[in-house]
Amino acid sequence: MANQVIKEQYSTEPLQGALHVQIKFYRSVQKSVSKVERRRRLSGVHRPTTKPDIDNLFKAVTDACTGIVWKDDNQIVSTKSDKFYSEDPRVEICVERL
Prior knowledge:
The chain is an alpha+beta fold. The protein is built from three helices and three strands; from the N terminus they run H-E-H-H-E-E. It has one domain (16-97).
């Protein structure tokens, strides 16, 4: 499923060479939190500290991009990852050739 979404978004040849990859993970706010806490989470004051772990999220996305965005994920030599709350859950990926 993730591979299909990536193929729809990225249609050129896989990148080659050393890469920097930045990934931002946006997850929804739990319905059980108060309105005050909801605002804190959506404003970035409180960030997600719950599972899944950021390294597992990163690995899932980079594996899904292999063969589509880049030839192999061993090309990634520099990374930055963040988890946020949002009313629009999504993953944003920025890839830069080094």
